[in-house]
Target: Azurin
Amino acid sequence: MNFVPTALEVSATACKTVTINLTHTGSFPRNAMGHNWVLSTTENAQATAQDGWSAGLENQYLKSGDPRVIASTKIIGGGESDSVSFNLSDLNVGGDYTFFCSFVGHFAMMKGKFTIIE
Model:
């Protein structure tokens, strides 16, 4: 139960838009062991995940309209994939960002560092 890779580095001068492709390599369905990919500032990551738990699976375990969510995929089950694209212009070079899974209880193990370089 982890992301591979556990850190992502993107060049703001080489890329204007980033696409994250998430594939769930397990076999359990989304309601039993679903995963998603969510990006927020590191400062807000844990609170965003915890606040989302009460939103339920039908809301991807994220509060509706949560401004702390920069980008996110939907919750997927084993063998499924999803993608999200987002613009880097709203993010800061050298900013402190974390990606994580918002499925209940997954935050502790499923997170990584997202870095934007020149």
Notes: The two ends are 31 Å apart (CA to CA). Strands lie at 7-11, 17-23, 38-41, 71-72, 81-87, 97-100, 111-117. The chain has a mean pLDDT of 97. The first strand starts at residue 7 and ends at 11.
